[in-house]
Amino acid sequence: MHTLSDNVSDVKLLRLLQQGRKDAFEALFKKYYHPLWRHSVKYLHDSHMAEEIVQEFFIYLWENQQTLTLPNSVAVYFHVAIKNRCLNYLKKKIHLMIPIENTTDILGYEPDQLIAEELSEAMDEAINKLPEKCKLIFLLNRQSHFSYKEIAGHLAISIKTVESQMGIALKKLREHLLKHGVRLLIWMPMIKETFF
């Protein structure tokens, strides 16, 4: 088996992982474990649970290596996967915290849940409607927390291009959300942090 050089691309490593290469898995683990752990802590505010989430993700990668899809950006794919796992964990945690006797209290819980779900769907729809380049840059910045400089280096483009594409992305997202009736929700922390 050939030894991997340090400059093997992430996509190549994922392709080698599909072939069962343990060294490719180890290289991805070494490169992404700590950034993904930090990303997870931002959502969970719990370092131990963040560690567990990231470990489970890498176990999933190893166990499902043959059926993995090859994304355009491994970094974005990994960060979005971790974000989704964190959000799923938080949803379950919140559900468990609601006392059984209160679960039928529709006025107490249902409206907030419906608003959150509707908002989440509108956000996903808005992001998915972006042109591919805008979408990738937006996700790298707002979900993976890459700086403009890091994005420019990662995608081999200028910082000015990143700024321009982010401007286009944010304008389109605001227009989409306002058009879809979330005008009264723009002060919600999740909306402000992601889109404004």
UniProtKB/TrEMBL annotation:
RNA polymerase sigma factor 70 region 4 type domain: residues covered: 121-173
RNA polymerase sigma-70 region domain residues: 28-93
Pfam short name (any one): Sigma70_r4_2
Keywords assigned: Sigma factor, Transcription, Transcription regulation
Family annotation (NCBIfam families): Sig70_bacteroi1, sigma70-ECF
Family in the record: Belongs to the sigma-70 factor family. ECF subfamily.
Protein name, as recorded: RNA polymerase sigma-70 factor
